[in-house]
Amino acid sequence: GKRSGLITHPFVLSYLAYHNNTSPIHRGVFLTRHVIGMPLKSPPMANEFKDSKFDPSLTMREKVASMTKSQDCMSCHVTINPLGFSLEHYDGIGRWREKDRDKPVDARADFHAEDGRTLTLTSARDVAEFAANTPSAHRTFIESLFHHLVKQPVRAYGDDEMESLRKAFEEGGYQIPNLIKQIATTTVQHASGPDDQFASK
After folding, report:
1. Do 54 and 84 fall into the same domain?
2. In 3D, which of 125, 9, 15, 130 has the Cα closest to residue 79?
3. Is 24 in the same domain as 98?
4. β-strand partners of 120
5. CA distance 7 to 21
6. Beta-ladder partners of 99
7. What percent of the chain has pLDDT over 90?
8. pTM recorded for the entire structure
9. Are 140 and 169 found together in one domain?
10. Overall number of domains in the chain
11. Does the pLDDT at position 140 exceed 60?
12. Nearest-angstrom CA–CA distance, 37 and 69
């Protein structure tokens, strides 16, 4: 199929887009920080995207590549752009498309992972498969789920708790119901044990 879970849900895709076009930058930042779990520095300078400044025949990918080609920009966009470009088959409201500005959509890009690997991404499925096999993505998911359920960060329960939950998630076959049970067990143990001070912070 053409959908790959949450990252290709129309609500997510349309939220991370302009009212009349896609936004590889917004989508790429979201994937970097909230799916892959890689940190990003604040941009050295604000650089607002203005569609009217570009040749109307250019695709959104071509516009973003031109806008972010400087060395200062590429320090972060070398990560952001490939992830954002991988979703270019989905238009501003999440519909599948084959063309942008009457040109074939190009969703292919090389992504440099934190472990030194260079991966060729061609679709949202490639991103999803990479995230499913990446510890930083697992930690990011655990942190988000923990905060959603407990309303506190994992680190409030001790410096080792994240790794403990990650190992339990892995050993449990990455089953979310099992992770939820483990989070519940963690909070109960801390609330009733000598480390109660962590849960009260």
Report:
1. yes
2. 130
3. yes
4. 110
5. 17
6. 104
7. 78
8. 0.87
9. yes
10. 2
11. yes
12. 24
Average pLDDT, rounded, for the chain:
91
**Interval 72-102: pLDDT, tens:** 899 999 999 999 999 999 999 999 999 999 9
Please tell me whether residue 197 adopts helix, strand or coil conformation.
helix
Which of residues 107, 132, 157 is at a domain's end? 132
- Mapped onto helix, strand or coil, the DSSP state of residue 147 is helix
40 or 192: whose pLDDT is higher? 40
Angle formed at CA 10 by CA 9 and CA 14, multiple of 5 degrees: 125
Number of H helices, E strands in the chain: 9, 4
Rg (CA), the chain: 19
pLDDT at residue 193 in the model:
58
Q: Which residues contact 105 (CB under 8 A, 6 or more apart)?
A: 59, 61, 88, 89, 97, 98, 99
Task: Give the separation between CA 8 and CA 77, rounded to whole angstroms.
Answer: 21
Q: Which of 7, 1, 53 is nearest to 26 (CA)?
A: 7
- 27 pLDDT more than 80: yes
Last residue of a domain, one of 100, 132, 164: 132
In the chain, the amino acid numbered 46 is: A
Kindly tell me the burial class for residue 119, based on how many C-beta atoms sit within 10 Å of its own C-beta (0-12, 13-18, 19 or more). Answer: middle
Full domain range(s) for residue 187: 135-199
Return the ∠ at Cα 97 (arms to 61 and 28), rounded to 5°: 40
